[in-house]
C-alpha cells in the first residue's frame, strides 16, 4: 500500500483546484470550487469547499498560482490589499520603470517590465494608498501566500519567508545568477525595500509543516509543505519538459513554446525562465487560441468547434495566410497589429465556404507560427528537436475537430508529437517529490506522475502539402513586417 500522498493546490483567478495523487501518479481524490470573491478570503473559502480529506498517511503538498499576481500582507499574513491580479495594469508607473537607466541591463538579466509587471502595480499601490502601504510587511505571489497561510498558526508573525524562483521572476529576480537572487539595483532605483520580498529558493524547497487552523480545516494538518511554481511553469513540467533538449507547446488561449537548455544564450525571439529543476527554459508565447475564438465568435458568429469543422473541409493550401506576432515573435513590431491576412473578398463562395477558408487560414497559420520556433531553437542550441510534447484540447487519434487541428499541427511540424494529459497540479509536485525523496530521480518522477495520452498521428497528405509552404512562411512573414515598417514611416 502506498504510504505517501502528493497534493497539488492550484490557485487560479476564478477557482481553486485540489488534487491528491498516490505514489503511482493515480488520482486518489480531487476537488474544485469557484472563487466567489476575488480576495484572499475568497481563495480560502474556495479551498475549504474544494478540500480533499485523506487517510492519516504522509502528505506532501505544493502549490501553483498565477504568475505576476501580487498579494500584499501584514506582519501576521493578513491581506492589506486585495490581490493585484496578473492582468491589471499600472501604465504610468510602467513608463517610469522603462525609462530607468538600467532598463537594458534588466532585459539582459531576464527581468521584463510592462504595465502588468508586479513592480509597477506595487508602485501604484504605494502612491495611491501610502498609509495602508506602510502596513505591508510581505509582498508575495499566490503560491507562496498559500504555503505560509497553511504553515503559520493564526496570529503568529510571518518571519523568514522564502519563495520559489519561478514566482520571483516577474517581481524582479535575476535568473542569470546561480541561484537566482533579487536584482537589487532595480529596487534601489525605485526606493522599494528588498526586505518586503521573501528570500529566493529552488522550487520544491521544504517550507515546513502545516500548523494553521486553515490547514486543519481543509484536511492538511501536519502536511509537509514545499515551494511551488507559477501556473506556466507547472504546465511546462506537466508537459514533460524536464531535461535538456525537451520541447513542449502548451496551447490554450496562447501558444506557449518551451525548451530546456543548459545555459542562457540570449536571442531576441526568446525569453528565459530558470528551470524549476535544472537548467533554463527559453521560450516564447503568442496569442493563438484567443484569436481563433475571437474570429469565430465575434466576426463569423459561430463557435470554435463549428469553425474547425468548416476549416476541415477546405483543401490544404487553399486558405489565406495569417501572420501572427507576440511580443517575442522573431519579427516583432510593437506598432503592428496582432494579425495580418491576405484575403480576397470578391471570390464567389458560400458563407460556410468563406468561413471555412478564414478559419483554416487561422489554424494552419498558428501551426506554421509554432513551427518557426523549432528550427530557431535547433540552430540556436545546436540540438535536433525530434519529439514535441503537446498539451491542448482533443485526444490523440480521435476523429473530432480539435484532434484534427492537432493532426494538422503534427503534419506541419513533421516531428513525433506526444499529447500529454493536462495535469497542472502535478507540475509543482515533481520538484517537491524529489526533495521529499518520494522518487529517486527525475526519470522515476516523470514515469510515475506524467501521463501520455498518445502520439498525435501525422497525415502524409498534409505533410506534403505544407512542406514547401512552411519553409516560405518565415520569409513571407519577414517581408510583410518589413513592408509594414516602411509604410509606417
Automatic annotation (TrEMBL):
Keywords noted in UniProt: Kinase, Transferase
GO function term, MF aspect, one: kinase activity
Gene3D superfamilies: 3.30.420.40
UniProt xrefs under InterPro entries: ATPase_NBD, FGGY_Carb_Kinase, FGGY_N
Top-level taxon of origin: Archaea
A Pfam family per the record: FGGY_N
Domain Carbohydrate kinase FGGY N-terminal as annotated: residue spans: 109-236
Official protein name in the record: FGGY family carbohydrate kinase
Lineage, top ranks: Archaea, Methanobacteriati, Methanobacteriota, Stenosarchaea group, Halobacteria
Amino acid at each position: 500500500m502506498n504510504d505517501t500522498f502528493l497534493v497539488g493546490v492550484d490557485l487560479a483567478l476564478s477557482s481553486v483546484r485540489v488534487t491528491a495523487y498516490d505514489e503511482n501518479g493515480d488520482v486518489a481524490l480531487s476537488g474544485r470550487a469557484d472563487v466567489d470573491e476575488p480576495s484572499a478570503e475568497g481563495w480560502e473559502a474556495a479551498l475549504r469547499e474544494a478540500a480533499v480529506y485523506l487517510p492519516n498517511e504522509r502528505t506532501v503538498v505544493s502549490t501553483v498560482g498565477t504568475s505576476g499576481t501580487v498579494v500584499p500582507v501584514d506582519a501576521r499574513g493578513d491581506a492589506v490589499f486585495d490581490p493585484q491580479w496578473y492582468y491589471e495594469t499600472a501604465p504610468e508607473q510602467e513608463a517610469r520603470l522603462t525609462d530607468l537607466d538600467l532598463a537594458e541591463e534588466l532585459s539582459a538579466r531576464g527581468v521584463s517590465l510592462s504595465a502588468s509587471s508586479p513592480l509597477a502595480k506595487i508602485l501604484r499601490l504605494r502612491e495611491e494608498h501610502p498609509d495602508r502601504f506602510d502596513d505591508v510587511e510581505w509582498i508575495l505571489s499566490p503560491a507562496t501566500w498559500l504555503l505560509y497561510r497553511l504553515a503559520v498558526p493564526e496570529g503568529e508573525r510571518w518571519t523568514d519567508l522564502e519563495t520559489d524562483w519561478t514566482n520571483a521572476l516577474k517581481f524582479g529576480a535575476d535568473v542569470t545568477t546561480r541561484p537566482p537572487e533579487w536584482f537589487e539595483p532595480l529596487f534601489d532605483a525605485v526606493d522599494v525595500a528588498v526586505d518586503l520580498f521573501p528570500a529566493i529558493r529552488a522550487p520544491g524547497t521544504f517550507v515546513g509543516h502545516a500548523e494553521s487552523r486553515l490547514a486543519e480545516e481543509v484536511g492538511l494538518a501536519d502536511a509537509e509543505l514545499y515551494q511551488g511554481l507559477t501556473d506556466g511553469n507547472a504546465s511546462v513540467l506537466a508537459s514533460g519538459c524536464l531535461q535538456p533538449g525537451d520541447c513542449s507547446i502548451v496551447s490554450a488561449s496562447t501558444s506557449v513554446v518551451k525548451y530546456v537548455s543548459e545555459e542562457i544564450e540570449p536571442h531576441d525571439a526568446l525569453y528565459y525562465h530558470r528551470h524549476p529543476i535544472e537548467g533554463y527554459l527559453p521560450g516564447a508565447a503568442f496569442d493563438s487560441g484567443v484569436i481563433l475564438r475571437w474570429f469565430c465568435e465575434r466576426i463569423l458568429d459561430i463557435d470554435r468547434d463549428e469553425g474547425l469543422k468548416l476549416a476541415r473541409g477546405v483543401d490544404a493550401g487553399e486558405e489565406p495566410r495569417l501572420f501572427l506576432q507576440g511580443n517575442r515573435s522573431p519579427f516583432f513590431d510593437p506598432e503592428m497589429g496582432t494579425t495580418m491576412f491576405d484575403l480576397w473578398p470578391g471570390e464567389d463562395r458560400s458563407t460556410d465556404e468563406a468561413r471555412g477558408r478564414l478559419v483554416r487560414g487561422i489554424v494552419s497559420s498558428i501551426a506554421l507560427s509554432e513551427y518557426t520556433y523549432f528550427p530557431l531553437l535547433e540552430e540556436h542550441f545546436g540540438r535536433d528537436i525530434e519529439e514535441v510534447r503537446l498539451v491542448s484540447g482533443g485526444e490523440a487519434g480521435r476523429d473530432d475537430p480539435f484532434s484534427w487541428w492537432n493532426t494538422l499541427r503534427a503534419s506541419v511540424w513533421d516531428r513525433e508529437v506526444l499529447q500529454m494529459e493536462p495535469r497542472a497540479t502535478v507540475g509543482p509536485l515533481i520538484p517537491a517529490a524529489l526533495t521529499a525523496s518520494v522518487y529517486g530521480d527525475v526519470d522515476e518522477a516523470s514515469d510515475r506522475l506524467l501521463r501520455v495520452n498518445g502520439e498525435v498521428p501525422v497525415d502524409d497528405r498534409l505533410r506534403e502539402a505544407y512542406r514547401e509552404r512552411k519553409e516560405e512562411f518565415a520569409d513571407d512573414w519577414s517581408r510583410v513586417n518589413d513592408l509594414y515598417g516602411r509604410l509606417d514611416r
